[in-house]
Structure formats: structure tokens, C-alpha cells
């Protein structure tokens, strides 16, 4: 008998739910859009967080390096007029030493320095990140024009070889300077040097712009050291090591660390983590954004559902006054919350994929940063689950509060 | 009809302590208010911290003062008085929608104070029909679904619910409007749906607060005719300051400033 009555109540609640949703279509539509936007906000911000980590991992993976050698932090510093803190000095000889280690195929120093760049010697100069790469063993992707022809200026440390005066730039730099392949630009570690150093753009490369998230000018390592006046110390930001096929990374890492205790030797994953740890403020901001997105999504969904339910308080007050039990009313509003949560969640997740595509296109167009937002089925499923759970719970809570309110107060 | 699951201790003809519901000579009291006072608090009390901070006590409004009234089966009782006189408050107390601050309200020999909120809700479902001034129908449900809804709680089967709701709607002249939603009905038709909803559980007491307040004169008169028709085997209490509404009452209770000033036949 009780079961029969409960089934009748459930059917009645279901009937009220369906009729309310069908009758108030505008309200239903707006609630679904609201929950959908909350879901979209959650997925996109979570996608940005994942994008930062995934892109980092992909870049480290794409670099095709096994180990990374640093001599301390590689963050930006104000010392020497500003730039990277390239604390790994005598990088050429250190790299040569490491290359002679068993199972190491190549050890390549990479240097990042802040440089002044302008299109003519008398005009304005802008600061960019100058990247120095030895042409052997470096992986620089070129999307237009040619690769760097070599690093003859080094000439086994004498720095008296011929200078190529070649640079690769990325699309953002090309836009900022309004130059293209074949044009000449002025580059130097100081304004005086920049005015007197003319280099030719030989190609377009997105490699280091993607790695650093900032516009770059890529040139042979010796020529970067030359224009920044650091040929004596040959500083590098890090040395990247590629191992022989089949070599055990952990074993070589341990062995190198034993031979070179003054350097940090990290695997791809460890280096990524170290870089991220150095960017603690950015990480904290990203984390805060994700938490805020989650909180805002939950709050928005909760508020929307509460509003939807409280708009029905007069009818519910009349029904309670008439003797309808609160269980029917609560079941009815739970049904509404469930439906709005599911439909809003589906709309939000459906909008996510085109929104991710659009944002990534925008990011590439504006800052040249590819893969800014990355989506995974887990993020979509979590956002959908949050919409359904919060929608249902918020509606249940609002219904419970309505049922606790004396009926006359709702009328 | 009184459902078997009623929480009210029902009295029968062979119960010497009970009241004879069927007696044609002595109408049985359905509900009785004895020396009831109702005081409302506007806002919340300051609490311990608020008192320490010097927040004054929330103002209190005495809506009803020491009122006593008995309503019997077959009676139409009109509650008259100006706005703020306590009509609605007395109506709500009689229906068990609120409890008095002082005094007792007894519904069929049961002191409402002794019932839990859930039990009072059940009591209203089984014994009280309520008609509001603004109808308060569920906009999304048809007239028949609105009327049939209380029967779900009583465990009445779907077919019976439809049958009884349809019969009641026919009785109030809306047999051809059963599938219409409130928005598709006029004010008078909505009020008749509300009356049908109030009657669907066959209550012993029907209360109505300004039932013709939102209606034109002609429609209002049709509604009043309905109340006259339904009063034969139950008690009806109407709160109104509308003369035609009070004219159908067997007895008029006049209130002013929360106190009953007179109680008698017209």
C-alpha cells in the first residue's frame, strides 16, 4: 500500500516536473543556457590549465632530448640590464665534456638572452628573446624560408670565423617588426651593438616561441654570444643531451650527476616540473582561475536552480496549504533540477569543442601560442557530472527550504 | 468521506464521548477556537549578541485578541471587518495553517497544538478545503490535474482521480474546460476550479479568504451560489468585507482591531 502510494506520488511529481518544464519554456531555456555557460566556463578554464601542462610536456617531447643540464635557475633576472639568468658558463666545453660520456650521442648548449631588435639602425628598437643554437644537433622547425646555414663564427672557440648574420624569427616577431624572409634587421645585446649589427631573416620558426610563449629571434650560438658580449664566458641557459639508442636514461642521468655534481641534470619530466616550479606565480594564478571557475560554475548553477524553484513558491505554498506533502513537491523540483542539469551540461559540453577550437585559433593569431586550451574526455565528463549533481542538489535544497517554510509565507 | 488514514480521532455514532455528526437537530462543531490570541513578530529577534549591541526587540503585532468561535456542520459563517481586523488570521488558525500564540483551536475534538506540522498538513488534506483570493492554481497543470492533485496524497487511483475531478468540474459548470490550463480560463472559471480543488477530498470545513475579491459582480455571484450549494453537509467560513458575500452567510462574525465585536445570525 505504501509502495503504491509512493509510486503514485512519484508519478504525480514527474507529471508536475514535465508540465512545469513544458509550460515555462523560456525559463527552462534560460536556465539551460545559464547552466551551459557555467559548464563552458569550467571546461575552458580547466582546459587552459591542462593546456599549460600538456603543451609543456609536448614541447619537451618534441625537443627530442633525453636530459637537460642547468646550473641553477633559468628565470628572468634584472641583472645586467635584464634577461635570462644564464648561469651555465663555459657551456661549449661542458657540452663537449658531456658528449664524451658513455651513451651520450650529443650535448647541445642553448642560450636565451634579451636582445634589442630594430628594422634600421637609426629607428626604434624593441626587446625580444634572442636564442642561440649550435647548428649541429639542434632541432629547430622551419615553416618558411631556410634553416640556419651553420655556426662557422665559433671556429673552435677562436670566434674569428665568418659570421653568417642569419636569423630565424617567428610569425609574431615578423608581424611586430613588419618584416619577412629576406629582409634585414638589426640585433644586439645593447643598443650600440644593435645599431651596428645587421642580420638577414632567412626563415620563420615557431619552435622557441612555442617553448617560451614569447616572440624570439634565433641565431647561431656564437653570434648570440658575440652580439651580447659573452664570448669569454659562453653562458647557456641549459645543455640538452640526446642519448644513444637503447641507452637507459636513469643510468646515464645518475652517472652524469656523479661526474658533474655542480649541475642539475634532469629528465624531460623533471625539467618540466622544475620550470613550472619556477613559474609558481603563474601556476598559482592558473590554479586560482580553475578554482574560481569551478566555484563560479557551482555558484551560478546553484543560484539559477534556486531561482527557478523559488519562482514556483506561490503554487507550492498553495499546494502545501491544501495538504499536499512536501515529498511530492521536493521530488518534483528534484526532477526539474535533474533535467536542467543534464540539458545544461549537454549544451555546455557541446559548446566546449567549438569554443576550444575558436580560442586556440585566436591564441595562435594573437600571440602565436598553439594548443593554449586542451580538452580531454575527463574534463568534459567532470563538468557534465558537476552540472547534473549541483543542479539536482541545488533544486533539492531549494525544494527542501520551500517545504520548511510555512505555506502562508510562500503565498 | 473521511479517509481511513486520518490522524484525527474520528468519533462515530456509537461513541458516547464523541459528537453525533449525523444528528439533524444538533449540528456538530467542526472547529472551535477558544480565547485565541495571535501575535506576529516583524523581523527576527536580536538574539544574545544583538541584545548586547543594543538592538531593540523586533516589533510585535497583535493580530487577534482573545477570540472565541465555534463553527458547525451545515453553517456558512461570514467573517466581516475592515482590513487588518484579524479576519484572515482567524481563518488561518481555524484551518490549521497557523497555531495561536495563546488559546486553543480544536478540530473535531483534537487540539491542533498537539499535532506535528506533518499531521496538520495531513489534517488539512483530509478535512479542510481552502479557496484563496488569488486562486493559486498550478499554472502548468490542466484544470482537472489541479483538482485531482490532492487525491494523489490520499492514494486514490488514477482513474478514480480523473473521474472525481471531472465530476466536480462539471458540478461547478466547467465540464467543457477540464483540459484547459489556468491561463486559458477567466478569473471566475479559475476560482471555480479552486473551489473544485477545495472540495475534491470531501472536506468537513471549507474556508475562503475574499473568494470574490478579484472577480466582477456577476462572476462573484456565481461563485457565491457555489458556496451555498456546497454548504449542506459541511461548514463553510468566508472572510470578506464584501456585502454580497456576507449576505449568503447564516451567521456573521464581525471583527475589529483583532477582536470579535459581534457574533450572531443575520
TrEMBL record, chain A:
Keyword hit for Transmembrane helix: yes
Membrane topology per record: Multi-pass membrane protein
Annotated keywords: Cell membrane, Membrane, Transmembrane, Transmembrane helix
InterPro entries: ABC3_permease_C, Lipoprotein-release_system, MacB_PCD
GO terms under biological process: lipoprotein localization to outer membrane
Domain ABC3 transporter permease C-terminal: 289-407
Residue ranges of the TM segments: 28-53, 280-307, 328-356, 376-400
Family matches, as Pfam families: FtsX (PF02687), MacB_PCD (PF12704)
Subcellular location: Cell membrane
Name of protein: Putative ABC transport system permease protein
Organism from which the protein derives: Natronorubrum thiooxidans
Organism classification: Archaea, Methanobacteriati, Methanobacteriota, Stenosarchaea group, Halobacteria
Automatic annotation (TrEMBL), chain B:
UniProt signal peptide: none
GO cellular component, one term: plasma membrane
Chain positions covered by the region annotation Disordered: 1-26
Pfam short name (any one): ABC_tran
A GO molecular function held by the record: ATP hydrolysis activity
Gene3D superfamilies assigned: P-loop containing nucleotide triphosphate hydrolases
Keywords: ATP-binding, Nucleotide-binding, Transport
Keyword Nucleotide-binding assigned: yes
Ranges where the ABC transporter domain occurs: 31-266
Database matches in InterPro entries: AAA+_ATPase, ABC_transporter-like_ATP-bd, ABC_transporter-like_CS, ABC_transpr_LolD-like, MacB-like_ATP-bd, P-loop_NTPase
Source organism, top-level taxon: Archaea
Classification via SMART domains: AAA
PANTHER family per UniProt: ABC TRANSPORTER ABCH.1, IMPORT ATP-BINDING PROTEIN
Protein name listed in UniProt: Putative ABC transport system ATP-binding protein
Organism for this UniProt entry: Natronorubrum thiooxidans
Amino acid at each position: 500500500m505504501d509502495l503504491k502510494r509512493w509510486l503514485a506520488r512519484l508519478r504525480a511529481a514527474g507529471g508536475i516536473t514535465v508540465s512545469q518544464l513544458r509550460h515555462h519554456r523560456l525559463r527552462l531555456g534560460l536556465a539551460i543556457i545559464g547552466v551551459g555557460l557555467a559548464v563552458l566556463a569550467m571546461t575552458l578554464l580547466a582546459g587552459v590549465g591542462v593546456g599549460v601542462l600538456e603543451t609543456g610536456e609536448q614541447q619537451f617531447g618534441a625537443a627530442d632530448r633525453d636530459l637537460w643540464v642547468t646550473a641553477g635557475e633559468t628565470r628572468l633576472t634584472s641583472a645586467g640590464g635584464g634577461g635570462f639568468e644564464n648561469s651555465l658558463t663555459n657551456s661549449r666545453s661542458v657540452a663537449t665534456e658531456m658528449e664524451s660520456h658513455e651513451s651520450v650521442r650529443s650535448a647541445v648548449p642553448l642560450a636565451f638572452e634579451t636582445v634589442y631588435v630594430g628594422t634600421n639602425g637609426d629607428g626604434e628598437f624593441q626587446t625580444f628573446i634572442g636564442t642561440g643554437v649550435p647548428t649541429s644537433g639542434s632541432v629547430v622547425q622551419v615553416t618558411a624560408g631556410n634553416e640556419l646555414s651553420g655556426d662557422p663564427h665559433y671556429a673552435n672557440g677562436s670566434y674569428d670565423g665568418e659570421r653568417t648574420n642569419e636569423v630565424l624569427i617567428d610569425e609574431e616577431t615578423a608581424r611586430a617588426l613588419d618584416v619577412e624572409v629576406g629582409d634585414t634587421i638589426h640585433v644586439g645585446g645593447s643598443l650600440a651593438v644593435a645599431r651596428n649589427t645587421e642580420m638577414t631573416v632567412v626563415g620563420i620558426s615557431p619552435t622557441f616561441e612555442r617553448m617560451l610563449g614569447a616572440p624570439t629571434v634565433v641565431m647561431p650560438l656564437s653570434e648570440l654570444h658575440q652580439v651580447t658580449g659573452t664570448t669569454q664566458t659562453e653562458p647557456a641557459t641549459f645543455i640538452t643531451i640526446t642519448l644513444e639508442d637503447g641507452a637507459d636514461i636513469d643510468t646515464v642521468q645518475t652517472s652524469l650527476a656523479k661526474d658533474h655534481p655542480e649541475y642539475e641534470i634532469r629528465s624531460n619530466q623533471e625539467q618540466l616540473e622544475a620550470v613550472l616550479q619556477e613559474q609558481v606565480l603563474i601556476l598559482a594564478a592558473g590554479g586560482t582561475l580553475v578554482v574560481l571557475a569551478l566555484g563560479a560554475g557551482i555558484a551560478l548553477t546553484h543560484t539559477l536552480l534556486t531561482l527557478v524553484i523559488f519562482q514556483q513558491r506561490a503554487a507550492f505554498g498553495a499546494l502545501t496549504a491544501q495538504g499536499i506533502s512536501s515529498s511530492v513537491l521536493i521530488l518534483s523540483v528534484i526532477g526539474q533540477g535533474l533535467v536542467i542539469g543534464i540539458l545544461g551540461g549537454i549544451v555546455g559540453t557541446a559548446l566546449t569543442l567549438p569554443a576550444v577550437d575558436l580560442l586556440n585559433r585566436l591564441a595562435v593569431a594573437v600571440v602565436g601560442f598553439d594548443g593554449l586550451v586542451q580538452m580531454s574526455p575527463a574534463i568534459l565528463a567532470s563538468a557534465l557530472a558537476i552540472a547534473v549533481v549541483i543542479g539536482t542538489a541545488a533544486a533539492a535544497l531549494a525544494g527542501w527550504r520551500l517545504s520548511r517554510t510555512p505555506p502562508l509565507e510562500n503565498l | 468521506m473521511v479517509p481511513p488514514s486520518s490522524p484525527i480521532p474520528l468519533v462515530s455514532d456509537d461513541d458516547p464521548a464523541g459528537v453525533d455528526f449525523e444528528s439533524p437537530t444538533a449540528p456538530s462543531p467542526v472547529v472551535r477556537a477558544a480565547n485565541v490570541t495571535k501575535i506576529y513578530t516583524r523581523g527576527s529577534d536580536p538574539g544574545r549578541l544583538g541584545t548586547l549591541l543594543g538592538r531593540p526587540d523586533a516589533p510585535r503585532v497583535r493580530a487577534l485578541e482573545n477570540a472565541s468561535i465555534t463553527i458547525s456542520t451545515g453553517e456558512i459563517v461570514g467573517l466581516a471587518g475592515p482590513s487588518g481586523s484579524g479576519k484572515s488570521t482567524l481563518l488561518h488558525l481555524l484551518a490549521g495553517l497557523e497555531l495561536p500564540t495563546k488559546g486553543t483551536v480544536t478540530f473535531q475534538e483534537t487540539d491542533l497544538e498537539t499535532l506535528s506540522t506533518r499531521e496538520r498538513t495531513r489534517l488539512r488534506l483530509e478535512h479542510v478545503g481552502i479557496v484563496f483570493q488569488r486562486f493559486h492554481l498550478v499554472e502548468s497543470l490542466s484544470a482537472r490535474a489541479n483538482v485531482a492533485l490532492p487525491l494523489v496524497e490520499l492514494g486514490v487511483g488514477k482513474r478514480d482521480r480523473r473521474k472525481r475531478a471531472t465530476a466536480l468540474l462539471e458540478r461547478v459548470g466547467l465540464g467543457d474546460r477540464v483540459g484547459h490550463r489556468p491561463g486559458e480560463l477567466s478569473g471566475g472559471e479559475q476560482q471555480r476550479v479552486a473551489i473544485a480543488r477545495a472540495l475534491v477530498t470531501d472536506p468537513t470545513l471549507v474556508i475562503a479568504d475574499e473568494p470574490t475579491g478579484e472577480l466582477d459582480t456577476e462572476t462573484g455571484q456565481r461563485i457565491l451560489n457555489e458556496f451555498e450549494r456546497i454548504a449542506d453537509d459541511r461548514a463553510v467560513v468566508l472572510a470578506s468585507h464584501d456585502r454580497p458575500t456576507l449576505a449568503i452567510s447564516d451567521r456573521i462574525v464581525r471583527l475589529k482591531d483583532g477582536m470579535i465585536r459581534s457574533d450572531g445570525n443575520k
